[in-house]
Every structure is written in structure tokens, then in C-alpha cells.
Design goal:
Blueprint: H1 11-47, H2 50-73, E1 80-82, H3 88-98, E2 113-119, E3 128-130, E4 141-147
Parallel strand pairs: 1-2
Antiparallel strand pairs: 2-4, 3-4
């Protein structure tokens, strides 16, 4: 005889506890799934709202304009240096955008080309111009490409 055989344990209480635990786990799981679905639908609605779509289109247009400007404005394979003064976003992205076809320099070197994105306006001479998008912070910009 084992010691558990003489323990005053009610088998129905054990089953009730198991069923209760399973029900609680199912309810918590379903609640979590429902909450996740609601939060996901809310995020989809926010990201597909007209203002968010306008901003995403403007950002995409800016990026693609600068990428095509890099292809048109730089001779193939030349080293490039991103000037430290300019728009913060472009200081961090011009190097990676140039990297597939050009060597990006950490310091200026003779024979390299400098890259800088500036706010476009009547005072900007030369450069490759990208239009802005009314109603967003994406104003007209110009990519300046100059030999060092």
C-alpha cells in the first residue's frame, strides 16, 4: 500500500480544479487573441488613414527622387563623401543610398564627390531638385553633387 492511497484526497475536487484551470486558460487565451486583433485593426486603420498615406507617399517620393538623382549626378564608381552639414535625415541615408555603386568615404579625399541635401529655393544654384508635397513636412529639396 502506498502512502497516497490513504490520503484523504477528493478526486472530484481534483477534477474540478483541473477543469477550472483549463477554462481560465482558454478564457485568458481568447481574451488575449481578441485584444491583439483589436489592436492590430486599430493600427491598420491609423496607418491607412489619408494623412498617414500622404506622409508615406511623400517620404517614398523624396527617397526615390534622391536615389535617381544619385544615379544621374554621379559618375559610376567614384568615391563620395557626405558633407556633415545638411538635413539630419539625409546625412544618415545618403551614404547607404550611394554605397551599392560608390565607395562612401569617412573623410574627404581629393577626387571624391561631396553630397549634400539642402532645402530647395531660389538661392540654390545647380543641383538636382526634388519637389515637395503640400500639407506635409516634405518640402522641396535639392541634392548638391560637387567634386572635392
Amino acid at each position: 500500500m502506498r502512502w497516497a492511497d490513504d490520503w484523504p484526497w477528493d478526486r472530484s475536487a481534483e477534477q474540478t480544479l483541473r477543469v477550472t484551470l483549463m477554462v481560465v486558460l482558454v478564457v485568458v487565451g481568447l481574451g488575449w487573441a481578441a485584444l491583439s486583433a483589436v489592436l492590430g485593426q486599430t493600427q491598420i486603420a491609423v496607418n491607412s488613414a489619408p494623412p498617414a498615406v500622404a506622409v508615406a507617399r511623400a517620404r517614398y517620393a523624396w527617397d526615390t527622387c534622391i536615389q535617381s538623382a544619385l544615379k544621374r549626378g554621379l559618375p559610376p564608381g567614384v568615391p563620395v563623401y557626405v558633407l556633415p552639414k545638411g538635413r539630419v535625415y539625409w546625412q544618415s541615408t545618403l551614404g547607404p543610398m550611394s554605397a551599392p555603386t560608390h565607395k562612401v568615404l569617412a573623410n574627404p579625399e581629393p577626387g571624391a564627390y561631396s553630397l549634400q541635401v539642402v532645402d530647395d529655393g531660389p538661392n540654390v544654384k545647380g543641383g538636382i531638385h526634388c519637389p515637395g508635397h503640400p500639407g506635409t513636412k516634405y518640402t522641396p529639396i535639392a541634392l548638391l553633387v560637387r567634386p572635392l
